[in-house]
Structure formats: C-alpha cells, structure tokens
C-alpha cells in the first residue's frame, strides 16, 4: 500500500480523483480515496468543535490503517492541515513499511474563499470556519521527514503523475525505528525466565533486609541499580 496525504480544501478533491484515475489506469493496484465525506459529517459543526475534529482525524487515520496493504494505493483526501497529524500518519506508514508522499494544493486565501462559495455540493464551509482553518493551517515543509517527498501544485498546474508514481512505487520504504517497530515475540521459555528472575530479586531483597534498616540501598541481582525500601517487607511477611 502507498499512502497519500493532501493538504488544504482548495482543489484537493479534484486532484485526489485525478490521482485515483491515473493509478487505476496505469497500475494493477486497488485505489481507495478516504475523506471527510465518508463519515457524512457537517463540516461546519465538526471544525468548530476541537473534540469532534479530533475524533474525525482519528476515524480517518483508522480507516487508512485498515486499508493498508501491498495491493492498495490509499489517497487521504482530507485537510491534514496540522503538522502533528501529518507526523502521526508518517509514523503509521513507517510502522507498516510503505512509501508515501504529500500533495500540497497551493492557493491563496481569497481564491479558496471564492471556490468555497462556488461549491457544487450543499455543504460549503461558512466563511467564519474557512477563515479559522486558514489561520490555523500549518504549511508542509519538505525539510521535515513527515512532509517529504512533497509535491506542491498550483491551481492550473498538471499533476506530475510519473514522479508521484515513482515516489510511492519505486522509492525505498522508510526504515522503522524503536517507536514504530513491532517487538519480536518472546521465546518459549520466557515465562520460566521471568519467574526465575523475579524470585531472585525477591530473595535478594528479603535476605538483605535481615541486616538492613529502612532507607538502606539494596542491590538488585543482574543490574547495577540499587533500590531503597521504606519499610521492612520481611517483618510484614512474617506477620501475615
């Protein structure tokens, strides 16, 4: 699977459809567009409420994650105007080891407003919400690894289909890091080893307390660390 993230609400859905048509005609991949419209939202009420907007972003991210596999090209046709959210998506694609790219539909605030008023559907943004979104918009920067590779597209400019295709079909996948890589499965004797180490630590603490008083430091077997106990566990155990 290859993941696109597109920014701004100005021309992005048209670009998303162009990308879908191109990849449907030129690859054997299944192409899916994921966007706000899937959830039947009232955009003005959602983007006026930070909690509802956060919920929507989470739902879109989950849908992208569900669609990810080697046979899919996923186009996320949503605002993605918060760099922190774009970073979340970047961590997601690193986790599943798939290339991605960012398509940024660049335009002016006045042109965005004009296009919004001319929307063919029945759900344009109110001018107040549109102005607030423009004010909060965090433009992508190709120097950020989560915004790269970045394709910035002007209003009348043709999409660089071939270059975009190379970015997601031929580019090496980003390497995983400790925060995104799944941990290996435990060995078959994991529980036995855990029990043994736990017993060693318990016995060492109990033995040390025979000659120590609360506040003394006790060495932990197998490490260079020491612990300080506030009460005598041995006495508590005997009392029980």
From TrEMBL:
GO BP annotations, alphabetical order: regulation of transcription by RNA polymerase II; tRNA modification
Keyword Membrane: no
Single GO molecular function: ATP binding
Keywords: ATP-binding, Nucleotide-binding
Database matches in Pfam families: KTI12
UniProt KW Nucleotide-binding keyword: yes
SUPFAM superfamilies: P-loop containing nucleoside triphosphate hydrolases (SSF52540)
Family that this chain belongs to: Belongs to the KTI12 family.
The protein's name in its UniProt record: Protein KTI12 homolog
